[in-house]
Amino acid sequence: MQLLYNSDSYAVVQVDLSQEAGGEAPPGPGPGRGGFEIVDKLARKEIFIEGALAEHFKSGVQAIADSDPSPEAFDEFIGRYGALAQQPVIAH
Q: How far is Cα 79 from Cα 75, in angstroms, rounded to an integer?
């Protein structure tokens, strides 16, 4: 797991399940087994995205990063995915 983004509103963690399980990442440029966990801190909900949706998210974040963005630009983009979150965040 790697924390990629953390603001007052959102946190984004990249999860590589092949690495977490002690395995090796698959060869080639394609996506490994894993995805992104997005936590909407204000709504106290989270979502895990993987596959094509995760690739779309990654591409969108990269496009924003390439344009010298503000934190608000990232929050606005991440908020589109955070709106899909249904799983409540529960602290132990």
A: 6
